Amino acid sequence: MEPPGHQKRSVGQWASIAISIMVATVLLATGGQKLLGTEQMIMVFDQIGIGAWFRIVSGLFEIAAALLLLGQKHRLIGALMATAVGIGTIATYGAIGNNTLTAKLLFALSAALVIANWSNINQVLGDRTKV
After folding, report:
1. pTM for this structure?
2. How far is Cα 68 from Cα 75, in angstroms, rounded to an integer?
3. pLDDT, tens digit, 9 for 90 and up, residues 44-88
4. What percent of the residues of the chain are helix, what percent strand, and what percent coil, each to the nearest 5?
5. Nearest alpha carbon to residue 37 among 18, 51, 26
6. Whole-number Å distance between alpha carbons of 4 and 13
7. Cα dihedral sign for 20, 68, 11, 108?
8. Distance in angstroms (rounded) separating the CA atoms of residues 130 and 28
9. Residue 128 above 70 pLDDT?
10. What angle do CA 112, 84, 35 make, to 5 degrees?
11. Cβ-based burial of 85 (10 A; exposed 0-12, middle 13-18, buried ≥19)
12. What is the pLDDT of residue 131?
């Protein structure tokens, strides 16, 4: 017997949850590496000529996106942020000659989450029709 108010999730909703967890895991790992100042992250940011401040800001942005992806109410915002991370990573890695395959995959999965969760836009923005 289902609890009152419980709705069964569709396969698409379960897929969205699974993809959200995968993308959040990647963002937590890379954001954490940026905040910890691992050698690889320092090298990348040195190659693009942006100081440590941007490494820290982008690490915090990635961790925030990951946390937002894990909650249904704010998943769309997290997906939009993750998509921005994917675009930035593709551009950065492309500029310094690194492989962009994983960044493209992150972007594609994040964009799919945006599409899958776009119906929640009114929940994110609030209902503007009420006066």
Report:
1. 0.85
2. 6
3. 999 989 889 999 999 999 999 999 999 988 999 999 999 999 999
4. 75, 0, 25
5. 51
6. 20
7. negative
8. 37
9. no
10. 120
11. buried
12. 47
